[in-house]
Amino acid sequence: MYFKGGIALLLAFAYADTVKALHVSKWLIDGLGDTSEAGLPPLVFILCAIFALATGTSWGTMTVFMPAVIPLAIHVGGMDNKQLLTTTISAVLGGAVWGDHCSPVSDTTILSAASSQVSLFDHAKTQLPYAFFVGLMAICLGFAPAGGGVPAGVCILFGLICVPVFHYGISCIPKFGGPVGIYDPGTGGITGQGLTGAATSIKSLAKAAKRLSKIGIEPEPVAPPLKQDEQRI
Questions:
Q1: Do residues 48 and 65 make contact, with C-beta atoms less than 8 angstroms apart?
Q2: Which residues are within 8 A (CB) of 187 and not within 5 positions of it... i.e. 6 or more apart?
Q3: Which helix (H) or strand (E) holds 192?
Q4: What is the per-residue pLDDT across 67-86, written as a single tens digit (0 to 9) for each?
Q5: How many CB atoms lie within 10 A of CB 80?
Q6: pLDDT in tens, 161-199
Q7: Are 61 and 45 spatial neighbours (Cβ–Cβ below 8 Å)?
Q8: Of 31, 22, 12, 42, which is closest to residue 72 (Cα–Cα)?
Q9: Which of 107, 97, 104 is nearest to 121 (CA)?
Q10: HSE, side-chain direction, 13 A CA sphere, residue 147
Q11: Which segment of 94-98, 125-129, 204-208 scores lowest on mean pLDDT?
């Protein structure tokens, strides 16, 4: 275990030296240095999301972009603009997790599909609409206004109000929205829609757990203790 940790630490130092030698941060500053403060966090979020989606790793995305994006944020907003710096760092974290969550080659996606007993590509395909909605809301109500100077508390308040409204509006679109079917691995089919389907699935799982609890192995009989005469023999 210590050998693997030492190798990982050695590779981390080698990667840091490589990033410095290639001047990745300088290349980003030259290419994206004219980006506005409001446009920098959304752009970073999209770049990190694409990179994590292709590689299937959130930690690797953070490792690649974090040392290059921080100097870029300081160049665009200056040393005194702490909100732009923290918002850009949040965009790196959010984009990395978004791409890792949606990537079909991610370990979390593979394990989620396996534990849910569904096809890997079906699982990745069905979660993309929800992820796109959340990513779009994060850009429009979070990263863009926060990068432009809007206080974080105001962005959170807008999100709490607007996200449910947008979600309900999308669900009312004919042949597009509406209740979502709930899949039950126990029955291998759809148990219902919306809250009713979720309640039916929970009841089915509870019944299955109850049946399993009734199936038990009879304990082996314990031999009675030997009497003193028998112990002597």
A1: yes
A2: 204
A3: strand 189-193
A4: 888 888 888 888 888 888 99
A5: 9
A6: 988 888 778 777 776 666 666 666 666 677 666 666 667
A7: no
A8: 31
A9: 104
A10: 27
A11: 204-208
Distance between CA atoms of residues 103 and 111, nearest Å: 12
For residues 3 and 199, the model is more confident at: 199
Please check whether residue 25 is in contact with residue 65, taking contact to mean a CB–CB distance below 8 angstroms. Answer: no
Residue 12 CA, distance from chain mean position: 23
Q: Can you tell me whether residue 220 is helix, strand or coil?
A: coil
The residue type found at 187 is T
pLDDT tens column, 147-159: 888 898 898 998 8
**Cβ-based neighbour number of residue 227 at 10 Å:** 9
Instruction: Please identify which residue in the block is written with the tokens 């109000």.
Output: 161
**Among candidates 126, 74, 65, which has minimal Cα distance to 93?**
65
188: left (phi over 0), alpha (psi -120 to 50) or beta: left
Give the predicted TM-score (pTM) of the model. 0.68
